[in-house]
Fold:
Amino acid sequence: MAAGCNSRHRGCDPNTYCLDPKAAAKAITPKTKAIIPVHLGSNMTDMDAIMELAEKHNLIVVEDCAHAHGAKWRGRGAGTIGHFGSFSLQSSKTLNLAKVESCCAAHPNWLRSPRQLSTVDVRTLWAAV
Structure:
């Protein structure tokens, strides 16, 4: 939002309460820049389908892992499958440390130095990709 982007909430899988890849596919337009699957209650979105969809449409995937610390998809941890993984550790999350946020990337050059990241909160990162 801070970068002028709009988010579009789409359907969820009734078994996991996570993003339904078929609903995400129907929502893609020429303006779409990223897919942000939210993993919830240690359940994960079908990341195989999401990554395939992202590759097909040249989109960035930012995994929201705030409620899925330790969750795995086919042996890979939440936040390590998409291009970026974001973890919020504020007081309402499953694992909390007051107001701490962190981000990981599939390629080390995609992240700025920790000093630069300290001034960017996850909401800004989501809007920027």
User: Anything to note?
Assistant: Residues 26 and 77 are 27 Å apart (CA to CA). Residues 47-57 form the longest helix (11 residues). The radius of gyration is 14 Å. Residues 113-129 have pLDDT under 50 and may be disordered.
